[in-house]
User: Fold these one by one.
Assistant:
Number 1:
Amino acid sequence: MTSLLVTGGAGFIGANFVQYWARNYPGDKIVVLDALTYAGNQASLVPLASHPGFRFVHGDIRDRELVTKLLIDDKLDTIVHFAAESHVDRSILEPDAFIQTNVMGTYDLLETVRKVWLERDAAPSTHRFHHVSTDEVYGTLGPDDDAFTEETPYAPNSPYAASKAASDHLVRAYHHTYGLQVSTSNCSNNYGPYHFPEKLIPLMIVNALTGKPMPVYGDGSNIRDWLYVEDHCRGIDLVIRKGRTGETYNIGGNHERNNISIVREICSLIDRRFEHDSGLSRIYKESPPASGKATDSLISFVKDRPGHDWRYAIDASKIESELGYEPQEDFESGLARTLDWMLANEPWWRAVMDGSYRDWIDTQYETS
Ligand code: NAD
Ligand code: TYD
């Protein structure tokens, strides 16, 4: 039996991961530690409420006393570290929290773990600290550049990417210096259920349903490599169970798309849903198809993000060849599943949005 501490488990990927783990390893103990920032939502953990071995702890990864107690009392042997500030636009406007949580928080966690796991008599015989990171640490690619491999030099461009790069280096150093059994995964853009509606895909869906402008930065030509969140969870699972200690693994979906094509695809998916389900027009009265208009009438090109990385692409051949990783969801079906989830879970996204952040950010990105 594995006893896991999942930091940031009330966030988007963390909540999907905890649900994935509970389904696949029902006998394991899972303790979620989450500070419940604006991005953390206990409602995303409701499906686990009656799961034996699951426990939610409201707290901060920087609270060394609390984390020490959890590691000892719950005899935890595995950490999956998701907790982070994760939104690039916020990191541009207010970088402080990114340094505090992503850099200092990871450092606090590593120090606590080192003291409990490596210095106490009661340390578990095997342990694993898995660090969840991003492809953004590698910087940006031109149209003909090869995709990022694990050997690509770090070149972070946003405060978010720089803070994640710093945390990756700390994790690496704790392995080399102290022998902490670590692994790191660097993943491309995720999408799927429980995604906070400030990121591209859920924001576009929510704005389309509620009749608000769909803000595309610059000319919409920027490219991301999209991965359905459950495929990311599957990759992390493989790395934790079979990955080599001290190694990093890139996880990606081989689904490179530019932003405007994704936004247009969301628009036509929504148009088709309204066509087939007349009830939607009664629920989402402000959405263009409710009054016979096309959803893409909401697309609005706005001022570009400062320092906007042009292209990300992941070369996942290491995890594929070493660990047998293969994504299972293709982009079209994953996007349709995501829209279905949003339509079936309106109370979830209405509750996580109070609107104030979006109003504020809209003033930073006026229509061009
Ligand atoms: P998220 O913003 O949805 O969730 C982050 C969670 O961390 C929230 O529940 C928040 O409450 C919690 N948290 C923040 N600060 C904390 C602190 N000091 N102590 C405890 N909990 C704290 O993020 P996400 O999109 O789920 O990303 C999870 C991880 O995956 C991050 O480390 C991110 O860098 C990485 N990642 C994300 C993507 C993506 O596309 N979203 C891609 C690759 C890697
Ligand atoms: P985002 O979901 O914020 O992820 P990341 O910046 O980590 O890749 O953005 C994905 C892409 O979509 C990125 O190129 C910026 C762009 N974007 C928009 O065009 N409009 C928006 O409102 C948002 C949030 C993002």
Note: The first strand starts at residue 3 and ends at 7.
Number 2:
Amino acid sequence: MYGSIEAGGTKFVCAIGDEEMTIKERVSFPTTTPEETMALVIDFFKKYEDQLVGIGIGSFGPIDIHRDSATYGYITSTPKLAWQNFDFVGTMKQAFPIPIAWTTDVNAAAYGEYVFGKGKGLSSVVYYTIGTGVGGGALQDGRFVEGFSHPEMGHMLVVPHPDDSFEGSCPFHGNCLEGMAAGPAIEKRLGKKGQELSEDEPFWSIEAEYIAQCAYNTTLMLSPDVIIFGGGVMKQRHMVEKVHQAFERLVNGYVKTPAVADYIVTPELEDNAGTLGCLALAREAVLHS
Ligand code: ADP
Ligand code: ZN
């Protein structure tokens, strides 16, 4: 059996999966303090201790992913103060001395789509989540694209739409993608949550413009095989077509991408992407241990 931990800012989703990557049990705990939340996580996996061979963790961040770093496996400079400098992998290793895969929450979802979803069989896959925040992960031939740290693609700058006077809600950058297009930025502008807005709300074409700018930047930097947009905001399914149109306008024929309907897509696994990604990463960690 493999364990999966999707560690999010509001909740932790833990699951158990078998060799076929079938989810056997899944539970969710609120993200409070490391002491409280991790006690629940460890209790959950202790039930399976005899069968558990590896664990995959996809965590909110920023996190330290450098194996030779003294703080490998830590959540580092998160604004969630209780979790700053928390030794996540170390805490899990102490309770379960088995192989543990460690990556960002969005990389885990990207991996799920890469192995089982819209990225299956492709060599270069980029996944974004547009939700409470915006995060992005990229895979090349099964490996995460990273250098001194994991990417922070959700904070790329976007050019403000001429009809949008919103200054952006990112405390670091103002008008970055997250500051302009994440769920809370929509709510701040319009006084309503994204899910309360109707399909013909004119703002959606502005939102699509920002997501298209993201797809444009991604295309020029990585030329991936597919770009997947998930997260709560993308549950507005009409958005993807608006993004296609804005994207083609921005690219303006400069690069010949795959057919846009197959190139800019929504996830196949929906809310299972993170769990399945963590399970598959756990399996990889065991294989290479
Ligand atoms: P999280 O990012 O916290 O993991 P989600 O991906 O579900 O969770 O994102 C939550 C955000 O998405 C909230 O800001 C919410 O208002 C927005 N959201 C959720 N559902 C929809 C919807 N159907 N349409 C537009 N926005 C939505
Ligand atoms: Zn930002």
Note: Residues 155, 170, 172-173, 176, 178-179 surround zinc ion (ligand 2) (CB under 6 Å).
